[in-house]
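Protocol step 4 of 5: obtain the predicted structure for the target chain.
Materials: sequence only (see below). No template structures provided, no constraints applied. The aim of this step is simply to have a reference model before the mutagenesis design in step 5. Sequence pasted as it appears in the construct record:
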Amino acid sequence: MNSHALRVLEYDRVREILASYAMSPLGKALAGALEPGGDAATIERRLREADEMRRLTAIARVPLRGFKDVATSIRTLAEGGRPAEPELLWDTVELLRGAVALREVLKREPDEFPELAALGEGIADVPELREAIERSIDTEGDVRDDATPRLAELRAELRRKRESIRERITRRLAEPKLQRALQAEGIKFKNDRYLLPVRAEHRQAVPGVIRDRSQSGATLYIEPEDLVVEGDALLALIDDERAEVRRILWELTRAVLAAEATLRAVQEAVAHVDLTCAKARFAADYRLTTPALTDPDEAFDLVLRDARHPYLMWLARGRAESGDGSSGEGRAAIDRVHEEVVPLDISLGNGRRLLVVTGPNTGGKTVALKTIGLCVLMGVSGVPVPAAEGSRIPMISDLFADIGDEQSIEQSLSTFSSHLTHIREILATGDARALVLLDELGAGTDPIEGAALATSLLEWFDRSSWHGVITTHLGSLKEFAFRCDGAENASMQFDPVSLKPTFRMVVGLPGVSHALEIARRLGVPGEIVDEAQSAIDRVQGPSREVIEKMEHTHRRMERERRRMERLRRRAQGERRAAESEREEARAERDAWRKEAELLADDVIRSARGKIVPLLEKLKSVPKQHRAVVDELRWVVELLLAETPLGERREAFVRSLKKEDEVFVPKFGEKCKVRKVNKTNRIVTVLLNGIPTEVGFDDVSWVET
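Step 4 output (structure tokens):
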């Protein structure tokens, strides 16, 4: 599509809206790069996919969060001489796992959602790569101890060595003479060495190597001389362990690079699904519809019913929701949006090739052009359009738009010259399957010459069977539309009482500027206005009178249409009220169920609180009865875990990752998570800097 048209029509706004609905970085990037055009079969398939996705998301959750471009990141690291980090490798696992889950959701009902099922079939799995990474990387993004026998051996030796050093240095800390020399309690682990914080003035009390000092110099960090050899041995083990980890990471990095083509295909597939879901959610929120596409071999046929500018709707919804504090579920807000953003109806084709739109300044002519252009661009991008059912969009060869004042100081172009430059490009590259949108044709120069040139251009369009919508202030172009079989007049309505535009387009009726009425209202002396009116009557009296009568008739018909619209909205309001009552009843039922669940949870917890102390007293029972006591304890814990809050806590703890914060009620402290052992249901947390193990039932997301 013509890049100038995409820019002046602000097609980027559509991309921004779709990107805001995408759930993953991959989907957002694809939305930002969306281009209109392509073959009719592909565009129609994209529209069907979006329509199916809208129906699917109403009944199922489509897992899309977290997909990242891991292939590019790993390729960049490898080319820089670095292996992939464990977290990035685990992102690869998450991508492949998520892709498999996404595929299953898309294929769940192939008869109901055939296009989505086809998308699901196109999502590949790489189980060998996924399993290889899972064997070496854990869920916290660390290299597993058992990734290789060598690493398991090194880490076991490291644990033994660290424990030995800790025990020896802890014994040293108990010495009274040493305690007087220390600046603070405890030890400092710095640069993989265990150091004592010694006051500078007591340096001689602690023989050893100074490894660091505080910024003020008041504290020296000393490695006791009897630990230096062990410290060096620890560093050697650490270096060996890091070398083994690096070797493992390089091995996995090479495995990812070997499967890069398949991995990128997976990324492209899930990005496409994410963009499709974004289209569906956008369509559901704003009541967009799927237009019918007319084949390039068929006659040009553009029909837009109740079409609205998509970005104006986006802005209006933001105002509506911020104004009433609604959360965006949507019916009330989108109703107000549809009232605020005035729709338009147009059709081009079947003999009507050119639409000449006239009317006063600020009457909405430019917005109407942009609405038409964006609806067509969205349709040929495979995106549902902000128009009513029954809208049709032709498969255009290109779209051209010349909108706004684009004078250029650098190129010494005036506004008129700029318009002519764009028109020259349109004439050089356009054809009868293109759509041309021209704003204020003939403006910016002498009115007579501008009108003559504009009329000649429209006559050329008509002879060449081109299609376009043209806005203008020139009266001679209204006459052209009256006498040309392939053209028709349209106007932007203007309220003669309030002297304000209504922003409604009326096809078949030329516009009147209402300049004299506005001048009279604003206090221009009456004799001047009367003389101007007489001059106009002498030149175009009969035609102006006909136009005014047509306007009067149209306003009467419009009032009747609005009355019928009010009746329709009242009926819709009554229907929504009934739906609201049903929702309230459903919410009340859910609240009762929740209350019952909480009560059951409280009862079981209370029972556990009484039973567990009794079980503790039974620890000393004879050996032959201990199995029964253990079984009873297990049953009590199982009952608690199966309550609604127990299930919620279980899910919460199993989702924890390293460095997450949890609250430990029995300590009354917030602690950072170091490790989660899901098999034994144990969480290792840092309590005042000390690794401490607690059970799943001892952590909470709520700080009491």
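Step 4 remarks: The two ends are 60 Å apart (CA to CA). Residues 526-617 form the longest helix (92 residues).
Proceed to step 5.
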